[in-house]
Amino acid sequence: MNCLIMVRFRNCSFYRLEGKDLINKEKILSILEKIYPGKYFYYKDSIRVYDNDTFLMGRDNYKKYLFILGDKETANRFSFENIDRININENEYIIEIVNLNSKNLCLLKGIFADISPVPCNKRKSFGTGDRLGIATPAHIRAIKRRDDIFPIIAQQSVRELNRTNRTWQDVIDDARWGYFESGVEIPFGADADHIKEINDLKEAADAGFTMFTVDPSDYIQDISSLDKSEITRNYYSLDRLAYLEKKYLGKNLTLEGKKYCIDQDILIPIAVKYIRALDRVSSLYDFLKDYKREDFDFEVSMDEIEEPVTPLEHYFISEELTNSGVNFQNLALRFVGRWEKAIDYIGDLNIFEDELRKHTNVLKKFGGYKLSLHSGSEKFSTYKLFSEITEGNFHIKTAGTSWLEALRTVAGSSPELFRDIYSFGFKCFKKDRDSYHLTTDITKLPLIDDVADNDLADYLEIAGSRQIMHVTFGSILTSKDKKGRYYFRDEIFSTLHRSEDTHYKLVSSNISNHLNLLTN
Questions:
Q1: Three-state SS at 221
Q2: Longest CA pairwise span in the chain (Å)
Q3: Active site residues
Q4: Which helix (H) or strand (E) holds 230?
Q5: How many CA atoms lie within 13 A of 115 on its CB side?
Q6: Nearest to residue 263, comparing CAs of 255, 273, 253?
Q7: In this structure, what DSSP letter does residue 487 have?
Q8: Could you tell me which residues come within 8 angstroms of residue 36 by beta carbon, excluding any fewer than 6 positions away?
Q9: Is the pLDDT of residue 13 over 50?
Q10: pLDDT tens-place string over residues 208-264
């Protein structure tokens, strides 16, 4: 979306500007409108003043910009790359228009420190993934008045990066610009999600992320397909066998009123299943601690497995992480029931409530961390339980839900484009669903050709349709024709730019629906 940098210097003699005008919001907007009549829309809330220089964001019909108004020394002080510069009052004052690129952002965050993420400082936290990089102002609109919840407004997983061809730097830069546009001054975090490799940790740390979610699922042993002799053989091949037996065999433990005396029948399957994964977590944490050399939040993801984590397994996981010196703030477990993308919880809520109470009691034995809920989008039936039972010690992750609201905006603004997107996603679903746990049967969905234009947005209320659109986002955003032109990406961004107000309202309302159930 960046354009070629073209510097133009012009004089403006039809408007007299005084120093006091540079800190008057209404005056600033009046000045800009007179100089650029009807050309730009300005984000009034974004106006900030620093040392008598004024900064704000605006947009034209195609993209967004940062506007800077200051005295004649402003350009020398900051050295922003500009696409337009106007001199006023015989060079006494200037107006600069600059691109939203990394270099200009680096200069801006040197002026306004709050546009950089920080570690979480609250018990409750909520992550808002943004696959397009343009929804942050809407996310902030939903969360900015909820003082008890810490927002993680830059959140993306390795899988999402790979499927959208974005980088860690893209994610955090887009979130920072969106934060500046919103005009708030609140602490926020940035979560590099589902990291498996050290190189991703390094790149995310270099980009400025403050939260790191590591995913050791490749090291978790699936013991469901092994017979008892195979499990035992695996156990006796463990590197830390002597340590495990000395620490755990014969240990008495009480969980939820039930007493355990840990013997080999208990220890062997748990150790075989998890110990290599926990060693991997420890090595990733040790690298990050040495590399980043400043405070960060660390989350361990144990949710990308088929079988639910039992309370006894939860105890073993937390005990081993603690003994290894891993200072973790969040732990994501595979809970009972089905946690499919884009739809509500599937399962018996009474059983989930009972299991969650057990897990919360394990958490209380250790303290110092929160339970994290992945695939948290649209799990409306569970939020009140999750908030109350954990006593507010929770982190919730959402991502695909905001992408779906973007598509809802497209459906209302450009029905034909939405039909083409959906038809394409339908064809890609079989391939793209492989890395997701879904039960969608696409043969049972109503044909989109039978849906009227005015009802297309409601088509996204159908569970199967939501899941198709949720998991095919990468193919939709990155596929090109034979000439190298995107099939849909540019049209999607253009449509959302034109319909920004609607887009923001839909995303903000949707996130508010999540938060209302967690905080009320």
A1: coil
A2: 88
A3: 193, 299
A4: helix 228-235
A5: 25
A6: 253
A7: S
A8: none
A9: no
A10: 999 999 999 999 999 999 999 999 999 999 999 999 999 999 999 999 888 999 999
**Sign of the torsion angle spanned by Cα atoms 409, 411, 417, 421:** positive
Residue range 163-178: average pLDDT?
98
CA distance 313 to 319: 10
Torsion of CA 415, 417, 422, 428, to 10 degrees: 180
| Torsion angle (degrees, nearest 10) of CA 226, 228, 234, 240 | 130
CA distance 183 to 55: 11
Q: What percent of the chain has pLDDT over 90?
A: 87
The Cα 339–Cα 346 span in angstroms is 7
Give per-residue pLDDT as tens, 323-339.
999 999 999 999 999 99
- CA distances in angstroms from 297 to 127, 290, 328, 414, 486, listed in the order given: 13, 14, 7, 41, 37
Nearest CA-CA partner of 339 in 312, 310, 381, 379:
379
The pLDDT, as a whole number, for residue 520 is 72
Q: What is the DSSP letter of 454?
A: G
Distance between CA atoms of residues 81 and 104, nearest Å: 7
Burial of 62 (C-beta count, 10 Å sphere; 0-12/13-18/19+): exposed
CB 146 within 8 A of CB 105: no
Distance CA 391, CA 368 (A): 13
Structural domains of the chain, ranges and CATH numbers in brackets: 9-111 (no CATH), 115-221+284-401 (3.20.20.70), 403-517 (no CATH)
